[in-house]
Amino acid sequence: MAHWQRIKAHIRRNKFMMYGLPMFILVIAGSFGLKEFTELKYNYRDEKIRTLTVEEKLALYQKGEKKTTEKIYEETMKELDIEHWKNKRGPRPWESKEDRINS
What we know:
103 residues; mainly alpha
């Protein structure tokens, strides 16, 4: 019994054993714990994402026509009327409701 009491007294007197060692253990155990949690997260994500078979890839490719950015730009420019527009001012927090309606 006396042997264990001397060891406990030595640990209480030594600041590293009292504060430093538990901190190191916490940091190292936390590192391993975070590693396990992130591995679990990525494994779950990989299960949700699956690869397509060749037939599915062909079906997706044949469904839609391939569009370039130039084609998309031309389509949107046909739909928009950029010659006749009116600048609309957004409401300001300090304006009253009547000012907002009138502007």
